[in-house]
Amino acid sequence: MKTVTIRDLRTKPKQVREALRREREAVLTATGRPVAVMIPVDTGSIDQTLETLRRARALEALRAIRASSQRMTPKDIDAVIAKTRRARSRAAG
Q: CA 68, CA 90: separation in Å to the nearest integer?
C-alpha cells in the first residue's frame, strides 16, 4: 500500500492523485504516523463507497464489542445496558 505524507498531499496534489489512481489505496501519514486511508472515488460511486466504509466500521465495532463481552460477567453486561439506556433517555429528553 502506498504511503503519502501530508506534506506530499499539500505540495504535490497531482502526483498524489495519480498514485492513488494507480495504487487504488494509500495511507496518509503525519510525522510518520498513519492518520487516514485514502481511496479513489468518483461522483457516481461516492454514496456507495461511503456506505461500504460505514458498514466496515460497524463490523469492526461489533467485533470489538464481541471480544470485550467475552470477558464480562452478566452483571457487567447489565450495567452497560443500563448506562446506555440512561444516556439515551437524557439525549432524547
A: 26
